[in-house]
Write a structure and sequence with these properties.
With about 425 residues, the protein is α/β, with parallel strands linked by helices. It has 2 domains: about 220 residues, FAD/NAD(P)-binding domain (3-Layer(bba) Sandwich); about 200 residues, FAD/NAD(P)-binding domain (3-Layer(bba) Sandwich). The strands form 6 sheets. Strands 1, 2, 5, 6, 7, 8 and 21 form a 7-stranded mixed β-sheet that branches. Strands 10-19-11-12-15 form a 5-stranded parallel β-sheet.
Length: about 425
């Protein structure tokens, strides 16, 4: 093959993935003069352009958009950028970083260099040729394979099916009622989008939690930031690494930001059900747990607000009085069957997330579920790192708010690994990083 950038095939560092995580690390490495290459399967920051619906907006305020050397530039720090604004801001970040990157190239395998037996080098095989690197950072995210259950295969062919990554707007779907499956951030917001467009929506819920948008005179995110929640490392979270498997709280930044209350949607005509568990050829089968799902979400909502109440009291802050959410609607019964034809359902939107795909990383760094084992992105395989994963270190690790801090940390780990190799052993600094 013809290698770019002067025909080089070896780099000190290769970064796999050109999203905000990979570009953040590229920025940090450039600041330290470390030669590297970013390899992106599609185009830089492509997922923000291709995997978001038309009305998509941030669910965190604009002031939390803090990539390395590139913070939020607008005049509405407490607003929520919409899709077009997000992509414009990210395009500016791409231009700011000027990463040494190749696009449209798929990494097929990362392993210790098998051709020469050089254990100190990695082989990075792509569909455009093979590179080698002293160190490799996997920054491809954790949302690779759209999850669609096998029961989808049982649905009749006239029912249009979409994953949340494919959904754009209500007009995209055929006329008729829509079943939305899942009520995490994507499911709740897509259900709302369809509901506001006047479509008849049936929503199969899950155990997703929810939170308030505003409470006691401020954005809830502002309160949590003052409470240092976003600085809490995963090692100090009550759930430890288990928090990485949690579903995100549903809330929206749409129209300036507001709560998403599924009970209110039900008052307005949306049909709510428990967890979808099957399809018998005629009817969807649902678990009788709608009431539990709604109650659990509300309990989380009130628990977060109660923690804010405690903080306000402890700090002696003047604020509007506290409140407790009380349900505005209760299900009259638990419905366990939904007849496809009788309900007039012509489309289904699957909003049950993504699964990671790291099969191309040939290294003993994964647990039994295929998730990488690491401490703040540093694995036990010397020179191999992960970046941009949810709760890699803090709540913001997979978001615009925390990836810069993680990228800076990995930059230090990469530099210290280089020092270790030159010294011919493990330096005290590297040993400290591994134990951190």
């Amino acid at each position: 093959m013809s290698y770019p950038f002067g025909g080089r095939s070896h780099y000190s560092v290769i970064i796999v993935g050109g999203g905000q995580a990979g570009l953040s690390l590229s920025h940090c490495l450039q600041q330290r003069g470390v030669d590297h290459l970013v390899i992106e399967k599609r185009s830089l920051v492509h997922s923000w352009r291709t995997q978001r619906w038309d009305s998509f907006c941030l669910v965190t305020p604009n002031w939390q958009c803090q990539l390395p050397g590139w913070g939020y530039l607008g005049d509405d720090p407490h607003g929520f950028m919409v899709k077009e604004q997000i992509n414009e801001w990210l395009a500016g970040f791409v231009a700011h970083v000027k990463a040494p990157a190749i696009e449209g190239v798929t990494v097929e395998r990362v392993s210790r260099n098998p051709a020469t037996g050089e254990r100190e080098r990695f082989s990075v095989q792509t569909d455009a040729g093979t590179y080698t690197a002293d160190q490799v950072v996997v920054a491809s995210g954790g949302y690779h394979r759209p999850i669609v259950p096998r029961l989808a295969e049982k649905l009749p062919p006239h029912v249009a099916q979409y994953h949340s990554a494919q959904y754009r707007n209500a007009a995209q779907l055929p006329e008729g009622a829509v079943l939305v499956v899942g009520c995490g951030q994507s499911g709740a917001q897509i259900a709302e989008d369809l509901h506001l467009a006047g479509r008849k929506v049936h929503l199969a819920t899950g155990n997703a939690p929810r939170c308030a948008r505003f409470y006691r005179g401020r954005e809830v995110v502002d309160w949590l930031a003052d409470m240092k929640y976003y600085d809490m490392p995963v090692t100090e979270h009550p759930l430890r690494e288990g928090v990485r498997d949690n579903t995100n709280h549903y809330v929206t930044g749409r129209d300036g930001g507001r709560d998403i209350d599924l009970r209110r949607f039900a008052q307005e005509g949306m049909e709510l059900y428990g967890l979808l568990s099957g399809f018998d050829g005629r009817s969807f089968e649902l678990q009788p747990n709608l009431r539990d799902n709604l109650d659990s979400a509300d309990a989380t909502y009130n628990r977060i607000n109660a923690s804010i109440d405690k903080f306000i009291a402890t700090q002696g802050i003047e604020a509007p009085p506290p409140s407790v959410y009380t349900p505005v609607w209760e299900p009259a019964e638990e419905r366990t069957r939904l007849d496809l034809a009788a309900a007039g359902i012509t489309s289904v939107v699957w909003c049950i997330g993504f699964s990671p795909d790291f099969e191309w990383v040939d290294a003993p760094v994964f647990n039994g579920r295929g998730a990488p084992v690491h401490r703040r992105g540093v694995t036990n395989e010397p020179g191999l790192y992960f970046l941009g994963l949810p709760w890699l270190h803090t709540w913001g690790s997979g978001r615009f708010s925390g990836v810069a801090r993680d990228a800076e940390f990995l930059t230090q780990a990469i530099l210290q690994r280089s020092d270790e190799k030159r010294a011919g052993g493990v330096t005290a600094a590297v040993a400290e990083l591994r134990a951190a």
